[in-house]
């Protein structure tokens, strides 16, 4: 078990504490795990040395982690929430989805994706509960040279006008409300109807919600729609588009907003319609292209 | 809610990810909490950037934390174990107990301390189950000038010869086995009898034990006795002494061993005794002085 690193750091000393811990690893272990844990220990000790926590502060951290663990169930993942609100989920996503300039950026999948959404023809309305401000979405799937990608598949999901996904309101919303799968034409075109998305809070009744409160932060996600766009020969894209007028646009609590994902939501104002705004029948038009990067071979 | 830091970093970018997260804190929050969380986020993001985890590795970390949380009960604290085996507990202890040169170093209290141990006269034997190799401990409590500290109180606790504390074996060991409280004389002298301590494993049947396995580490603590020494006008000392011949001395799984806490354990070999070793009646003699630092006023 003893190795040369360990002989150099046999006993605990404050100055070399991380080296002492890392020298303890065995010689015959998974090399990636060694690398990962070395970095974890290095930064953990550096953070403790910078913070210089009191015993009580250390214990508060232990209790926070314990409460987060106890909050986790089959249906609730408090540590993923923690990762989300500390920007770690977006960072891991960014690291794993570096793309050529111009390609649509990736974002996190989020907890509300459900596979096997209904397949619709272009033009269908995915809003099944009739609530909210009508919206028409259309655009094209192109490659990084601007050429159309034919036969791409576009999957979309979003909250209803009350700020809930169908799976959060089973029995209240129609099944598969505001979810759909579309195929782009051979020119890469797609189009469908929906309603303007709304902001909504992440679950804030646990330790992470309490932490957000102490940080002076709110639990709201900026209003958005989710997309997965796939096409043979291209890297799949998991992404969002955001409404530009949401009050939480620059405060999305999971840091999902990227500058390049803020769409234009244009109010359709047909001259022949009588005061569409005042009647509550305003319509929104969104044009959005997805730019796919070629798959790495 | 919007402040100047936030305006500088409105949306997520990989390069400035930690700054984006920290800029989100409110202006009217506890300043110490702001400082602590800024450092946590900074090092968390730095670690993620250095590790570049895959999605699967990130999920493995989430699952590890969840399993650790689920292992915690009123009687089991898996996150403290995690803190212990990563050297964090010792580091926090060291940071909070920096002492003048020569003073007895502090160590962690550990989970097996119980208040209100029986008070004995010097010379008493704290071993109530008759197991193990007899040992005589004696020494003096002095200040950093080497002058005796009169009337110091010395509290001691340790495992029995099977490697368990009394509280781990209620009904098997006598209550208060191997625990005692002594008062030093006016010259600072103390002395008592016990048995030579044994190494023992920390609870290794949970996620932290599994992690230790993947790190090529064992769960054993080096053989030791615990002490708390207090005297009016001096900083209390929570400390260990370690046996020099324990096979785990340079591999204590919670990094409790400090060079200055390794005692001499001398075998008493009275010329007039018939083969004390072979009879199993070997006796050990330990001389150990505690050096107290004056309390900060």
UniProtKB/TrEMBL annotation, chains A, B:
Q: Which InterPro entries match?
A: 1_2-HQD/HQD (IPR039390), Catechol_dOase_N (IPR007535), Intradiol_dOase_C (IPR000627), Intradiol_dOase_core (IPR015889), Intradiol_RC_Dioxygenase (IPR050770)
What keywords tag this UniProt record?
Answer: Dioxygenase, Iron, Metal-binding, Oxidoreductase
Which molecular function term from Gene Ontology is one that the record holds?
catechol 1,2-dioxygenase activity
GO annotation, biological process: catechol-containing compound metabolic process
Q: Write down the Pfam families for this protein, in alphabetical order.
A: Dioxygenase_C (PF00775), Dioxygenase_N (PF04444)
Which SUPFAM superfamilies does this entry report, sorted A to Z? Aromatic compound dioxygenase (SSF49482)
Question: Ranges for the Intradiol ring-cleavage dioxygenases domain?
Answer: 137-165
- List the PROSITE patterns hit by this protein, alphabetically: INTRADIOL_DIOXYGENAS
Necessary cofactors: Fe(3+)
Q: Does the keyword Metal-binding apply?
A: yes
Q: What is its EC number?
A: 1.13.11.37
Provide the family line. Answer: Belongs to the intradiol ring-cleavage dioxygenase family.
Q: What protein does this entry describe?
A: 6-chlorohydroxyquinol-1,2-dioxygenase
The scientific name of the source species is Paraburkholderia rhynchosiae
Its encoding gene is what? chqB_3
């Amino acid at each position: 078990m003893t190795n040369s690193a360990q002989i150099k750091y046999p006993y605990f000393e404050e100055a070399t504490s991380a080296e002492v811990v890392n020298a303890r690893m065995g010689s015959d272990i998974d090399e990636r795990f060694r690398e990962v844990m070395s970095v974890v220990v290095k930064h953990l000790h550096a953070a403790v040395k910078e913070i210089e926590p009191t015993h009580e502060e250390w214990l508060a951290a232990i209790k926070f982690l314990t409460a987060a663990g106890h909050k986790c169930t089959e249906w609730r993942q408090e540590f993923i929430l923690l990762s989300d609100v500390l920007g770690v989920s977006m960072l891991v996503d960014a690291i794993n989805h570096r793309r050529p300039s111009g390609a649509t950026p990736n974002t996190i999948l989020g907890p509300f994706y459900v596979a096997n959404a209904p397949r619709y023809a272009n033009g269908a309305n995915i809003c099944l509960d009739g609530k909210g401000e009508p919206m028409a979405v259309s655009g094209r799937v192109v490659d990084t040279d601007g050429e159309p990608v034919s036969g791409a598949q576009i999957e979309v999901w979003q909250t209803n006008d009350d700020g809930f996904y169908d799976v959060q309101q089973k029995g209240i919303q129609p099944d598969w409300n505001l979810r759909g799968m579309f195929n782009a034409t051979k020119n890469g075109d797609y189009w469908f109807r929906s309603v303007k998305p709304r902001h909504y809070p992440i679950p804030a009744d646990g330790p992470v919600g309490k932490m957000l409160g102490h940080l002076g932060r709110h639990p709201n996600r900026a209003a958005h729609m989710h997309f997965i766009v796939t096409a043979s020969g291209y890297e799949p894209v998991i992404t969002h588009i955001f409404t530009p007028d949401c009050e939480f646009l620059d405060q999305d609590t999971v840091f999902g907003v990227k500058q390049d994902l803020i769409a234009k939501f244009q109010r359709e104002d047909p001259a022949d319609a009588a005061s569409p705004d005042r009647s509550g029948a305003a319509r929104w038009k969104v044009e959005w292209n997805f730019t796919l990067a070629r798959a790495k071979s």
